[in-house]
Amino acid sequence: MANMPTINPIARSGFANATSYDAHRPSYPPDAVKHFLQHLDVQNVLHAHIVDLAAGTGKFTEILARCEEDYEILAVEPHSGMREVLEKKGLKGVKVWEGTATDMQTVEDQWADAVVVAQWVPSTEWERKLKEVTWTSDDRSPRFRHNEWRTPFEEQTKSSPLTIQTADPMFSLPLGEDSVKWTVWLTKEALWERFHTISHIANQSGVQLQETREKVYDILNNGTDIETNEKGEVAIHGQTVFAWTTAIPGASLRNGG
To answer: What is the pLDDT confidence band of residue 121, given thresholds at 50, 70 and 90?
Structure first.
């Protein structure tokens, strides 16, 4: 029997409520998707093969599935609850597989030749305070902001007197990087529900969770630079940051690479 993909226990429990995650987590803005597909050289390419790694509940997968190019998409996700939500969507051209970045044995060699990452960057004082609540509740697990995702790309070209003749980089450098700013409007309750999908916040319970909720609402109710509309919704300012790279032609992505 094949080994099951290893998932960080914090992520396994923090994302257990996959339905709530899918309902409240933000999607990707059209401009960011457009630029992303351009950089991957798959825009206007009919039936291009795309691996959506760590697909989660399919927030990005469903955008790919709606594209006119009729992509063939392999959505790879280790969390069973998230895979279940994604599979129920029945997305056109999408196959959902269990796996991780280091365990995709069912994916043919060199299907994935690009990498994309994204993260919300706060732009107002109240949003920065909200981010501070997130950071002070941190469980010290590596996240996008810690930049550890860069390590495999940056270290592939490092060498020593013993390895200089055997260096075998797989991906081109430097990484391409870009970003797209956006604004969405949410009620305070919807914003809290989105905030509550962050894994280490979702893992809280009892008094700790109540204290975190009170901190969030205190920021929302007393922030001096909060922008609201006639519906009482709050303007959330974000920035989708994305990075990409391509596989070096001829480099093995599995054996010795």
So the answer is: low
Quote the pLDDT of residue 246.
79
Tokens of 75: 């959505």
Distance of CA 106 to the CA centre of its chain: 22
How many residues are recorded in the chain? 257
Q: Which two tokens stand for residue 205?
A: 């319970």
Q: For the chain, how big is the Rg over CA atoms in Å?
A: 20
Q: Are 34 and 43 in contact, with CB atoms under 8 Å apart? A: yes
By the 10 Å C-beta count (0-12 exposed, 13-18 middle, 19+ buried), 103 is classed as middle
- CB distance 32 to 60 below 8 Å: no
Cα-based torsion angle of the residue sequence 150, 197, 20, 179 in order, rounded to the nearest 10 degrees: -40
Q: 163-198: per-residue pLDDT in tens? A: 545 557 778 888 888 888 889 899 999 999 988 888
Q: What is the DSSP string of 212-243?
A: HHHHHHHHHHH-TT--B-TT-PEEEEEEEEEE
Q: Could you count the other beta carbons within 10 Å of the beta carbon of residue 68?
A: 8
The pair of structure tokens assigned to 50 is 């795309």
* Closest C-alpha among 179, 175, 238 to residue 31: 179
